[in-house]
Structures are given as structure tokens and as C-alpha cells.
Amino acid sequence: MGGLAEAQVVDAVDAVVRRDVPLAQALIVRDLRLDDMQADIERRALSLIADQGPSDEDLRRAVSTMKLAMNLERCGDLARNIAKRSLVLSGSDPVLPLMSAIQRMGRLVAARLREVLDAYAAQEMDAAMAVWRRDEEVDEHYESIFRELLTLMANEPDTVAPGAHLLFIAKNLERIGDHATNIAEILHFQLTGEELSQPRPKVSLLEADRPRDTPQ
């Protein structure tokens, strides 16, 4: 399921950048498989909990698996949303200056998802937490695209419609990055039985605009 979700993200970005209508259409159909897999994992985890009286460790693993599947299914939904917007963009003039930025952000998010899934599979909390600590990098990419798109749309009215779709695409990628950090937190809970106490590293547009010496 993790491999499929990662492939959905990569293909969604490729569909946008290459204006690949068949790829986007195939991705939208493939998303149904993620939904089915999540439902199957949830049924099996609930059956384990109900029928086998699992130990605390096994119970955490079952609950964590359900949370992981939910996050992966949501990544698939966000990739599907990107694919749908790529279909709209395929019929308009491309916003060329921002396509490379969308591609870079997409590759970064897909890499983060792959890294945290590898960490989860290997039960390596340090590797998962390294992804968690680098969440700001995804936020910074989103912020940069957000600002560039607003400037472009303000100066070139013809770019407003495609620019709005790219804004939503960038936001969906940022949210996929959030799901990658969710998975790191899920593994932390599974292995330790405790929630993370420190706040998640985040960059917000408001914080970026605030002078450094202004009290928060």
C-alpha cells in the first residue's frame, strides 16, 4: 500500500508537469485500489484486536497499522486531486516559470514519503524522526511557490486561472508532506507507547512575515 501511494504521488506530479492526460486518468482509477486496501487492513486489524486478545505491543501495532493505512489512503486522495487539476491545466497555457518548482516540490515530498515508509518497514525510529524534523523543508517550498504564484497572477491576469490550480496542487503536496510526518509520529507511538511531546516543526506564511525580534 505504501508503494502504491508513493507511485500515485510521483505520477500525479508527472501528469501535471508533462501535461499527460492518460496518466492522470489512469491514476484517478488506480486510487480505488488504495481505498480497498485500507478497508481490508482495517478489517484485519480490528479482527486481531477483537479475537486474539493481543498484548500491549501487538495492540499498539494493530492500531498503528490502521492509522498508517488511513494516512496512505489520504495521500492517494490528495494525489488524485492533483491529477484532476492536471486534467484542467492540460487545456490551458502552462505557467512555465512555476512548473519546475512544482516538480522539485513533488520530488521532495515523494522522497520524504519513501524515506518514512522505509523507516516504518524497518522499524527504525531514528530514520523516521529525521523525516519528521525536516518537515520545514516542504513548508518552505510551498511558501516559495505560494509567493511566486501570487506575484505572477497579480502581474499577468491571464495566469490567474491556471495559477489558482497550481496553488491547490502545491497545497496538496504540502499536505502529503504532513502525512509523511504523521507516519513518523505513528511509528514513534508504536515503538514507545508515547505520543511525541515536542511540537512539529512548521513554517507558516504569517511566521515568515513576522520580524525576528517581534514577541510571539
Spatial shape: globular
The CATH architecture would be: Up-down Bundle
DSSP summary, beta strand count: 0
Helicity, as a percent range: over 70%
The CATH topology turns out to be Methane Monooxygenase Hydroxylase, Chain G, domain 1
Give the structural class.
mainly alpha
Low-confidence stretches: 206-216
Question: What can be said about the biggest beta sheet?
Answer: none
CATH class: Mainly Alpha
CATH superfamily: Phosphate transport system protein phou homolog 2, domain 2
Return the string of H and E elements. HHHHHHHH
- Average pLDDT, rounded to a whole number, is 88
N→C terminal distance: 41 Å
The fraction of residues assigned to DSSP E strands is under 5%
Subcellular location: Cytoplasm
Family: Belongs to the PhoU family.
Main location: cytoplasm
Domain PhoU: 1-85, 102-186
Please characterize this protein's 3D structure.
With 216 residues, the protein is mainly α. It has a single domain (2-209), classed as Phosphate transport system protein phou homolog 2, domain 2 (Methane Monooxygenase Hydroxylase, Chain G, domain 1, Up-down Bundle), CATH 1.20.58.220. It contains 8 helices and no strands. The longest helix has 34 residues, at 56-89. The N and C termini lie far apart (41 Å). Residues 206-216 have low confidence and may be disordered. Keywords: Cytoplasm, Phosphate transport, Transport. It is found in: Cytoplasm. Belongs to the PhoU family. One of its GO terms (cellular component) is cytoplasm.
Which properties best describe this structure?
phosphate transport, mainly alpha, 216 residues, Methane Monooxygenase Hydroxylase, Chain G, domain 1, 8 helices, transport
